[in-house]
Amino acid sequence: MKSLKKYIILIAIFFIILAGIILYTQIGKQGSSDFMNFSQNISNDTSQESETQIIIGKNIEFSTTKTNTLENLPYTSKPKFKIGEKYTYQARNTGPSNKIVEDLRKRPGTIIYDYMTYPITFSVEKIERINKTDYYLISTEGSGEVILGVIKDKEGMQRPFTTTKFHLTKYYINTENGEILFKEGGDPIGFLRIYEPRMLKLSEGLKWQERSETNATNEQTINEESCEVKDVEEINGKKCFKVECRVKQCKNEECKVVYRKLYWVDMEKRLTLKFQLWYENLQTMDVSLINYEK
Known about the structure:
Blueprint: H1 2-58, E1 62-68, E2 86-94, H2 99-105, E3 111-112, E4 115-130, E5 133-140, E6 145-152, E7 158-164, E8 169-174, E9 180-184, H3 188-191, E10 207-216, E11 219-235, E12 238-251, E13 254-266, E14 272-279, E15 282-293
Antiparallel strand pairs: 1-10, 2-4, 2-15, 3-6, 4-5, 5-8, 6-7, 8-9, 10-11, 11-12, 12-13, 13-14, 14-15
Protein backbone atom coordinates (compact mmCIF):
# COMPACT_ATOMS: atom_id res chain seq x y z
CA MET A 1 0.00 0.00 0.00
CA LYS A 2 2.77 2.34 0.92
CA SER A 3 4.43 1.57 -2.38
CA LEU A 4 1.25 2.48 -4.26
CA LYS A 5 0.99 5.83 -2.46
CA LYS A 6 4.64 6.51 -3.18
CA TYR A 7 4.06 5.67 -6.82
CA ILE A 8 1.05 8.01 -7.04
CA ILE A 9 3.02 10.85 -5.38
CA LEU A 10 5.86 10.42 -7.89
CA ILE A 11 3.40 10.53 -10.80
CA ALA A 12 1.80 13.72 -9.39
CA ILE A 13 5.19 15.37 -8.94
CA PHE A 14 6.05 14.42 -12.53
CA PHE A 15 2.89 16.06 -13.91
CA ILE A 16 3.44 19.16 -11.74
CA ILE A 17 6.99 19.49 -13.10
CA LEU A 18 5.73 18.90 -16.66
CA ALA A 19 3.03 21.53 -16.26
CA GLY A 20 5.62 23.98 -14.92
CA ILE A 21 7.88 23.36 -17.94
CA ILE A 22 4.99 23.89 -20.38
CA LEU A 23 3.89 27.05 -18.59
CA TYR A 24 7.44 28.43 -18.56
CA THR A 25 7.82 27.70 -22.27
CA GLN A 26 4.57 29.52 -23.12
CA ILE A 27 5.54 32.50 -21.01
CA GLY A 28 8.94 32.56 -22.73
CA LYS A 29 7.30 32.50 -26.15
CA GLN A 30 4.91 35.27 -25.20
CA GLY A 31 7.78 37.30 -23.77
CA SER A 32 9.79 36.80 -26.92
CA SER A 33 6.77 37.77 -29.03
CA ASP A 34 6.23 40.89 -26.93
CA PHE A 35 9.89 41.79 -27.29
CA MET A 36 9.75 41.35 -31.05
CA ASN A 37 6.62 43.48 -31.21
CA PHE A 38 8.30 46.13 -29.08
CA SER A 39 11.38 46.06 -31.28
CA GLN A 40 9.22 46.32 -34.37
CA ASN A 41 7.38 49.28 -32.84
CA ILE A 42 10.69 51.00 -32.15
CA SER A 43 11.77 50.31 -35.73
CA ASN A 44 8.49 51.68 -37.09
CA ASP A 45 8.79 54.78 -34.93
CA THR A 46 12.32 55.45 -36.23
CA SER A 47 11.12 55.02 -39.81
CA GLN A 48 8.36 57.53 -39.20
CA GLU A 49 10.85 60.03 -37.76
CA SER A 50 13.09 59.76 -40.85
CA GLU A 51 10.10 60.16 -43.11
CA THR A 52 8.95 63.18 -41.15
CA GLN A 53 12.38 64.72 -41.45
CA ILE A 54 12.31 64.20 -45.21
CA ILE A 55 8.87 65.80 -45.35
CA ILE A 56 10.12 68.70 -43.28
CA GLY A 57 13.06 68.99 -45.68
CA LYS A 58 10.69 69.19 -48.63
CA ASN A 59 8.53 71.83 -46.96
CA ILE A 60 11.21 74.51 -46.87
CA GLU A 61 9.60 77.88 -47.45
CA PHE A 62 10.46 79.16 -50.90
CA SER A 63 9.25 82.26 -52.72
CA THR A 64 10.35 84.33 -55.70
CA THR A 65 9.42 87.94 -56.44
CA LYS A 66 10.11 89.63 -59.77
CA THR A 67 9.83 93.33 -60.60
CA ASN A 68 10.52 95.22 -63.81
CA THR A 69 10.18 99.01 -63.92
CA LEU A 70 10.18 98.89 -67.74
CA GLU A 71 6.92 96.93 -68.00
CA ASN A 72 4.53 99.87 -67.63
CA LEU A 73 6.45 102.22 -69.92
CA PRO A 74 5.06 102.83 -73.45
CA TYR A 75 6.63 101.53 -76.64
CA THR A 76 8.59 104.13 -78.60
CA SER A 77 8.80 102.05 -81.77
CA LYS A 78 7.43 99.00 -83.54
CA PRO A 79 9.58 96.28 -85.11
CA LYS A 80 10.81 97.45 -88.52
CA PHE A 81 11.90 94.28 -90.22
CA LYS A 82 11.36 93.98 -93.97
CA ILE A 83 10.85 90.79 -95.93
CA GLY A 84 14.04 89.80 -97.73
CA GLU A 85 16.45 91.50 -95.30
CA LYS A 86 19.57 89.66 -94.23
CA TYR A 87 21.74 90.58 -91.25
CA THR A 88 25.18 89.00 -90.86
CA TYR A 89 27.00 89.28 -87.55
CA GLN A 90 30.52 88.38 -86.50
CA ALA A 91 30.59 86.91 -83.01
CA ARG A 92 33.47 86.23 -80.70
CA ASN A 93 32.96 84.59 -77.32
CA THR A 94 34.89 82.47 -74.85
CA GLY A 95 35.41 78.87 -75.87
CA PRO A 96 33.93 75.85 -74.11
CA SER A 97 35.28 74.80 -70.76
CA ASN A 98 34.71 71.22 -69.63
CA LYS A 99 36.68 68.13 -68.70
CA ILE A 100 37.05 66.96 -72.31
CA VAL A 101 38.48 70.31 -73.39
CA GLU A 102 40.77 70.50 -70.37
CA ASP A 103 42.09 67.00 -71.11
CA LEU A 104 42.71 67.99 -74.74
CA ARG A 105 44.71 71.02 -73.62
CA LYS A 106 47.15 68.64 -71.90
CA ARG A 107 47.72 66.59 -75.05
CA PRO A 108 51.06 67.37 -76.79
CA GLY A 109 50.63 69.18 -80.09
CA THR A 110 47.13 70.39 -79.23
CA ILE A 111 46.13 74.04 -79.15
CA ILE A 112 42.72 75.08 -77.81
CA TYR A 113 41.83 78.72 -78.37
CA ASP A 114 40.50 80.82 -75.51
CA TYR A 115 37.87 82.32 -77.85
CA MET A 116 35.75 81.09 -80.75
CA THR A 117 34.90 83.35 -83.69
CA TYR A 118 32.15 82.78 -86.23
CA PRO A 119 29.69 84.58 -88.55
CA ILE A 120 25.93 84.04 -88.40
CA THR A 121 23.23 85.38 -90.77
CA PHE A 122 19.57 86.06 -89.96
CA SER A 123 16.97 86.30 -92.75
CA VAL A 124 13.52 87.90 -92.63
CA GLU A 125 11.57 85.31 -94.63
CA LYS A 126 7.93 86.40 -94.50
CA ILE A 127 4.99 87.53 -92.37
CA GLU A 128 2.94 84.62 -91.09
CA ARG A 129 -0.51 84.87 -89.50
CA ILE A 130 -1.03 82.80 -86.35
CA ASN A 131 -4.25 83.03 -84.31
CA LYS A 132 -5.30 86.26 -86.09
CA THR A 133 -1.96 87.92 -85.30
CA ASP A 134 0.88 88.71 -87.72
CA TYR A 135 4.41 87.55 -86.99
CA TYR A 136 7.73 88.04 -88.75
CA LEU A 137 9.34 84.69 -89.51
CA ILE A 138 13.09 85.16 -89.00
CA SER A 139 15.45 82.26 -89.52
CA THR A 140 19.13 81.40 -89.49
CA GLU A 141 20.98 78.45 -90.96
CA GLY A 142 23.24 78.53 -87.94
CA SER A 143 26.89 79.25 -87.41
CA GLY A 144 28.32 76.36 -89.42
CA GLU A 145 31.47 74.71 -88.09
CA VAL A 146 33.35 76.83 -85.59
CA ILE A 147 37.07 76.23 -85.14
CA LEU A 148 38.03 75.83 -81.49
CA GLY A 149 41.67 74.99 -82.04
CA VAL A 150 44.05 72.41 -83.49
CA ILE A 151 44.46 68.88 -82.14
CA LYS A 152 46.83 66.02 -82.94
CA ASP A 153 45.05 62.77 -83.82
CA LYS A 154 46.20 59.20 -83.12
CA GLU A 155 48.29 59.15 -86.28
CA GLY A 156 50.13 62.29 -85.15
CA MET A 157 48.47 64.51 -87.75
CA GLN A 158 47.17 67.94 -86.75
CA ARG A 159 43.61 68.78 -87.73
CA PRO A 160 41.08 71.50 -86.82
CA PHE A 161 39.06 70.98 -83.67
CA THR A 162 35.54 72.18 -84.49
CA THR A 163 32.01 72.38 -83.15
CA THR A 164 28.65 73.68 -84.38
CA LYS A 165 27.63 76.53 -82.11
CA PHE A 166 24.13 77.06 -83.53
CA HIS A 167 21.94 75.02 -85.84
CA LEU A 168 18.89 75.96 -87.92
CA THR A 169 16.63 78.26 -85.89
CA LYS A 170 13.31 80.00 -86.56
CA TYR A 171 11.74 82.90 -84.65
CA TYR A 172 8.17 84.24 -84.78
CA ILE A 173 8.16 87.92 -83.71
CA ASN A 174 4.96 89.93 -83.26
CA THR A 175 4.79 92.72 -85.89
CA GLU A 176 3.15 95.14 -83.40
CA ASN A 177 4.80 94.74 -80.00
CA GLY A 178 7.89 92.72 -80.95
CA GLU A 179 7.21 89.91 -78.48
CA ILE A 180 8.67 86.54 -79.47
CA LEU A 181 5.82 84.04 -79.79
CA PHE A 182 8.11 81.03 -79.89
CA LYS A 183 11.29 79.78 -81.48
CA GLU A 184 12.31 76.51 -83.08
CA GLY A 185 15.85 75.31 -82.45
CA GLY A 186 18.42 77.17 -80.36
CA ASP A 187 18.46 80.82 -79.39
CA PRO A 188 21.33 82.65 -81.16
CA ILE A 189 19.39 85.95 -81.21
CA GLY A 190 19.02 85.83 -77.42
CA PHE A 191 22.52 84.52 -76.77
CA LEU A 192 24.14 87.20 -78.93
CA ARG A 193 21.69 89.94 -77.74
CA ILE A 194 20.88 90.86 -81.33
CA TYR A 195 17.26 91.62 -80.54
CA GLU A 196 15.21 91.95 -77.35
CA PRO A 197 11.59 93.19 -77.13
CA ARG A 198 12.62 95.78 -74.54
CA MET A 199 14.60 97.58 -77.26
CA LEU A 200 11.27 98.89 -78.56
CA LYS A 201 10.88 101.01 -75.39
CA LEU A 202 14.22 102.79 -75.51
CA SER A 203 14.50 106.58 -75.38
CA GLU A 204 17.28 109.02 -74.52
CA GLY A 205 18.10 109.07 -70.81
CA LEU A 206 15.89 106.06 -70.02
CA LYS A 207 16.69 104.11 -66.85
CA TRP A 208 15.10 100.90 -65.62
CA GLN A 209 15.66 97.97 -63.32
CA GLU A 210 14.78 94.29 -63.49
CA ARG A 211 14.96 92.46 -60.18
CA SER A 212 14.27 88.93 -58.94
CA GLU A 213 14.40 88.01 -55.26
CA THR A 214 14.35 84.43 -54.05
CA ASN A 215 13.81 83.65 -50.39
CA ALA A 216 14.39 80.19 -48.95
CA THR A 217 14.99 79.02 -45.40
CA ASN A 218 18.06 80.85 -44.08
CA GLU A 219 19.01 82.09 -47.55
CA GLN A 220 18.17 85.05 -49.76
CA THR A 221 19.35 85.46 -53.36
CA ILE A 222 18.88 88.64 -55.40
CA ASN A 223 19.63 89.17 -59.09
CA GLU A 224 19.34 92.81 -60.11
CA GLU A 225 19.95 94.29 -63.57
CA SER A 226 20.14 98.08 -63.73
CA CYS A 227 20.14 99.60 -67.22
CA GLU A 228 20.55 103.12 -68.61
CA VAL A 229 20.60 104.72 -72.05
CA LYS A 230 23.93 106.50 -71.64
CA ASP A 231 24.25 108.32 -74.93
CA VAL A 232 23.54 108.39 -78.65
CA GLU A 233 26.51 107.30 -80.77
CA GLU A 234 27.10 106.41 -84.41
CA ILE A 235 28.06 102.92 -85.55
CA ASN A 236 28.74 102.56 -89.28
CA GLY A 237 26.84 105.77 -89.96
CA LYS A 238 23.76 104.66 -87.97
CA LYS A 239 22.57 106.53 -84.89
CA CYS A 240 22.43 104.16 -81.94
CA PHE A 241 21.27 104.18 -78.35
CA LYS A 242 24.25 103.26 -76.20
CA VAL A 243 22.81 101.16 -73.38
CA GLU A 244 24.75 100.00 -70.34
CA CYS A 245 23.42 97.28 -68.03
CA ARG A 246 25.01 96.10 -64.82
CA VAL A 247 24.00 92.79 -63.28
CA LYS A 248 24.41 92.57 -59.53
CA GLN A 249 24.07 89.34 -57.58
CA CYS A 250 23.48 89.21 -53.84
CA LYS A 251 23.52 86.26 -51.49
CA ASN A 252 22.60 86.85 -47.87
CA GLU A 253 23.33 90.60 -48.22
CA GLU A 254 26.76 90.07 -49.81
CA CYS A 255 26.59 91.75 -53.23
CA LYS A 256 28.86 92.20 -56.23
CA VAL A 257 28.50 93.33 -59.84
CA VAL A 258 29.31 90.28 -61.94
CA TYR A 259 28.23 91.27 -65.47
CA ARG A 260 28.37 94.45 -67.52
CA LYS A 261 26.59 94.66 -70.86
CA LEU A 262 27.03 97.31 -73.53
CA TYR A 263 24.55 97.59 -76.39
CA TRP A 264 24.60 99.89 -79.41
CA VAL A 265 20.99 99.67 -80.64
CA ASP A 266 20.00 101.10 -84.04
CA MET A 267 17.52 103.88 -83.24
CA GLU A 268 15.49 103.13 -86.38
CA LYS A 269 15.57 99.32 -86.64
CA ARG A 270 15.87 98.64 -82.90
CA LEU A 271 18.43 95.93 -83.53
CA THR A 272 21.83 95.63 -81.91
CA LEU A 273 24.64 96.74 -84.18
CA LYS A 274 27.30 96.06 -81.56
CA PHE A 275 27.30 94.25 -78.22
CA GLN A 276 29.91 93.58 -75.53
CA LEU A 277 29.61 91.35 -72.47
CA TRP A 278 32.00 91.63 -69.55
CA TYR A 279 32.29 89.18 -66.68
CA GLU A 280 33.91 91.13 -63.86
CA ASN A 281 37.01 92.50 -65.67
CA LEU A 282 37.13 89.95 -68.50
CA GLN A 283 35.40 90.58 -71.84
CA THR A 284 33.66 87.32 -72.71
CA MET A 285 31.72 88.33 -75.82
CA ASP A 286 31.91 90.77 -78.72
CA VAL A 287 29.24 90.90 -81.45
CA SER A 288 29.13 93.23 -84.47
CA LEU A 289 26.94 93.60 -87.56
CA ILE A 290 29.27 93.14 -90.55
CA ASN A 291 26.83 92.97 -93.46
CA TYR A 292 23.27 93.99 -94.30
CA GLU A 293 21.31 93.05 -97.43
CA LYS A 294 17.82 94.10 -98.47
